[in-house]
Structure formats: structure tokens, C-alpha cells
Amino acid sequence: MTRYSRQTRILVAVDCIIFGFDGQELKLLLVKRHIEPEKGNWSLMGGFVEPGESFECAATRVLKKLTGLENVYMEQLSAFGDPERDPIERTVSVAYFSLIDINKYIQQISHEYDAEWFPIKKLPEVIFDHSNMIEMAKEKLRYKAAFHPILFELLPEKFTLPQLQSLYEGIYDAALDKRNFSRKILSTTLLVKQKDKEKETSKRGAFYYKLDRKKYANKFNAFLNFIPNPQKLK
Amino acid sequence: MTRYSRQTRILVAVDCIIFGFDGQELKLLLVKRHIEPEKGNWSLMGGFVEPGESFECAATRVLKKLTGLENVYMEQLSAFGDPERDPIERTVSVAYFSLIDINKYIQQISHEYDAEWFPIKKLPEVIFDHSNMIEMAKEKLRYKAAFHPILFELLPEKFTLPQLQSLYEGIYDAALDKRNFSRKILSTTLLVKQKDKEKETSKRGAFYYKLDRKKYANKFNAFLNFIPNPQKLK
DNA sequence: TCAAAAGTGTTGTCCTTACACCCATGT
DNA sequence: ACATGGGTGTAAGGACAACACTTTTGA
What we know:
Two copies of one chain form a homodimer. Chain A is built from six helices and ten strands, in the order E-E-E-E-H-E-E-H-E-H-E-H-H-E-E-H. In chain A, 27% of the residues lie in helices and 28% in strands. The first copy, chain A, is of the alpha+beta class. Chain A folds into two domains: 137 residues, Alpha-Beta Complex (Nucleoside Triphosphate Pyrophosphohydrolase); 72 residues, Arc Repressor Mutant, subunit A (Orthogonal Bundle), CATH 1.10.10. In chain A, strands 1, 2, 3, 4, 5, 6 and 7 form a seven-stranded mixed β-sheet that branches. Chain A has a three-stranded antiparallel β-sheet with strand order 8-10-9. The interface between A and B is large, with 39 and 39 residues.
């Protein structure tokens, strides 16, 4: 016996939900679909899973092709299997979401793909069930970031506390008290204060911090509770 | 165009991780595999996804076939896609975990399948990557139950506080203070005290409680924080 | 000198924990 | 009467939220 006979084989794809943060707001990277159906419409970047390739491989490959980036935060969101989700032919999709430093992303590559960053609050229409995927990814990001220090993945190596705070405020649509915020963040001892300041956005300048990568790896699973009223989240 | 040409189609299956609680310990329902390869070895209950059937449908169908149960708690765990996970032919699997009231489970049906409940701490060897799936499911259950009141799904309609407490203690391998436990649980106002008592396990008897189903549905997403040291969890 | 953003401490409240004794009943 | 598990209250400590003023410096 070398095959399971009489069973239906199905197309399997991966789709990547790619988050970035430009210092102001949370953004999502979308591409213009280059094949029919829905050619020319906005879509998550995706691709079929190839023979001999795991989901992680496929998603990593797809992400790299679009952004030029490797070794970024990526996590399986969910598998989507509605029989009608692709009108051409049944295709199941395993969705992954990634958090990338938007500055490292290579503009040139994405031009080849007709890619564009959209503010998470002003997304265009997207094909198939992609808006459903995106909704789930946003929810999961909010959920996870409430207890795990994953938002650092969206920032450059050096960042300031006000930048970090505005990232949290953006994601939770909430105003945070900067005294409480900095006390809570610094109490994790995950951040190392630098000697230099960021002086673009204010006259006085704000000190840079770096992640303590070692502690970060160890403490990743620590629950943080950054958010005032987590009751509202799923 | 009616098909995506030149792409590989793959077998897609679902596997169910079925948890139950017998009043003493957490258990898992396994079946003896009835097809080659690994015929006769212990396995999660699974099945191929059929044409026109979503993952949820497939998982529900598989669960019902084995337990006779419908409308039970079920959640997608993850998709597993290692190309080598099934030695016969590449098969991706979407795993679902379920929490069922072990008393409602119909003994007779499971006999047809050679099914057996195993204590979660004394599992036999299982086929393929099923032990990996089980590990992930245990972790996810611990994670989720720390913040959401899902463990009620494992209990019968009427249950006592000591029963509930021993369920939490079993899942977290921790001794809990019964005064603090009952205060915390009752403060959710999710439980309604009954007039009758359970008198099997003690002379004095313990009052039964029922879930307030309405509040339960509303408050499901409330964070509960039942566990003393959530730092240890993933 | 003024405007704009950075930085810093204290207090009250509430939640969490630790802890010990009495109760009801079957044998 | 005693053994077994069920049920209850309080006090201390820690975490969190609310809150306002001073600093720096470029224009």
C-alpha cells in the first residue's frame, strides 16, 4: 500500500498576514493579486504549499519573496477550510501572521509585487475570506500582546519609550498613562537604556532603549498585563 | 479557467483531541487504528476531509461518530503539515480539541471503535505526530483555562465546588486553597447554588452548583486568573 | 521666552494570599 | 464519639491606577 485510495486530495496554500508599525499606526502589507480570478484586487500574500515543504517553510518562503526578510516573528494563526472560499477550486489555506520591522523591509522587492502598506483601520476590500483572516489576526495580536512582549518585534533595534507607548496605544485604541506605562515596562528589566537620544520628534529628545535579547528569550512567556481593561478582549 | 493547473493536491484530514474528566483526573480518548499503516496502534480519532465539507464539519462528524456527542466545546488547535508526518502519503491534518462531559459519552459506540480513555499522565505510544498534537492541546488547555471558564465543559450539568477544584488542581498540578478558590469562583457569579447535595463522596455532602448558561455565554471572554503563578505557563 | 514633548513619585484602593476553626453526618 | 470532607472570615501585603509638576531645548 502506497496511497490512501478513494480519498480526495485538495490544494493547500499559505497566506501571510504581515504587520508593520511606522511609528504612527499599525499597518498591513497587501499585494495586488496577479492571477485570475480577482486579478488586480488586493490580497494577502500567499502561495501554494509545494511537495516536500512544510507549512512553516512555505510561509517563510512567501514572506521572504515579498519582503526580503527572514528570521522574523511568525506564528500560525489558523487553517481555513471552507469549501467555497476559493471559487475556482477548493483550496484550504493555512494563515500565518508576522510582525516585522517596517524599516528593514525592502521597498524594491515589494514594487515587483505591487505591494502596499495599508493602515489597519483603512484597509481596502480584499479577496476571498482574507478579511476574515485579517480580523482574526488582529484579534490574536491584541490578545497575545496583552500578555507577551511581542510588540518589540515591530520596532527597530533602538526605540524610545514614547514610541513603544504609542504602539500599545494604537493597538488597543487606548490612552495610557506614561508614568504607569514606563514603570511597568521597565519593571520587566527587558529594556536597556542607551546613552543616545532620538531627537527628531521632540526638542528635548527621548532616550533610546534596546531589548535585552537574552532576557527576552527567557521571559517571553511571562504574562505582562499591559492593558488596563483586558475584559474587553477575546 | 476552472482549476489551478500544475499545483499539487494533498490529502487533508482532521484529528480530534478529546478531553474528559472522571472526577479524579483528566483523560484522553484514543482509538485503535483500523487501517494500515500502524494498524492496531493507539491514535487520535481522525478522518479525511470530504469534498464539500469544512474542517469544522469534518471534526464534528468524526467526534460524533466516536462519542455520539454533538454541540460540545470544540476549537481548532492547529494545522500540522510536516511532509513526512504520514509515511504512506503526504497528509496534512487540522487538529481540533474537544472538552466533553465524560458521563454523556456513549460507551457502546466507542466499543465499535476500540476506544479507550487514558489518564493524561499515562498515555500509551501514539502514531505519527499525534503525541505532538496532544502536547500542544494540553498546553493550550492550560493556557486557555487560566483565563476563560472553559473547564465547566468537562463537568456534568450539576457539580460541586470540591469537584471543580480538583479539576483545576489536576490540570495545573497545584494544590489550591479552598477558601480562596470558592471565593474566586463564586465572585464570577457564573454559578447557581442548588438545593440538593452530592453525598457519595462525603458524609456531610457538598452542595451542587449549576452554570448560569446565560452569564456564561456573555462572560466567556472575561479573564479570570485562576492560577497562582501563571508565569510558568506558555 | 515660549511651546512641545520627556521624564519622574506618591497615595489610596482593591485584589490576592495566607491561614484555622467549626459543621454535618455516617459509621 | 469520632473520622471525614465541607464550608466559612479576616488581616497583611502587593499591585495597579490616578494624578501634576519640572526639565530640556529648538525656534
